[in-house]
Amino acid sequence: MEFCFTEWRDYFRRNQSAVKELTVNMISFLKLSAALFVLQFSSFKSAKVQKVCF
Predict the structure, then answer these.
(1) Is residue 50 part of a domain?
(2) Cα–Cα distance between 51 and 47 in angstroms, integer?
(3) Per the domain annotation, does 35 fall within a domain?
(4) Who contacts 52 (Cβ-Cβ below 8 Å, separation ≥6)?
(5) What is the reported pLDDT for 29?
(6) What is the DSSP string of 1-54?
(7) C-beta of residue 28 within 8 angstroms of C-beta of residue 34
(8) Quick check: is 20 in a domain?
(9) Domain extent at residue 15
(10) Domains held by the chain: number
(11) Using CA atoms, how far apart are residues 28 and 35, in angstroms rounded to an integer?
(12) How far is residue 9's CA from residue 19's CA, in Å, rounded to a whole number?
């Protein structure tokens, strides 16, 4: 199935609100992931002083 650039543009113009919503969701998800990673990393760094058991 071929999907040309003009078709993509038309698709995005038709579904602009959906694309915008998806982008916002992606950004918030990435922010959440980054925050969780930082949290885990900082807690791991503080836990490295003690004995780390898994």
Answers:
(1) no
(2) 7
(3) yes
(4) 44
(5) 93
(6) ----HHHHHHHHHHTHHHHHHHHHHHHHHHHHHHHHHHHHHHHHHHHTTS----
(7) no
(8) yes
(9) 5-45
(10) 1
(11) 10
(12) 12
Query: What does each C-alpha distance from 18 to 12, 37, 38, 44, 48 come to in angstroms?
Result: 9, 28, 30, 38, 44
The length of the chain is 54
**Structural domain includes residue 53:** no
Quick: pLDDT tens for 18-48. 888 888 999 999 999 998 888 888 776 666 6
Q: If you search the block for the tokens 């113009």, which residue do you land on? A: 13
Nearest alpha-carbon partner for 32 in 43, 21, 40, 20: 40
Return the closest-CA partner of residue 37 out of 53, 29, 22, 23. Answer: 29
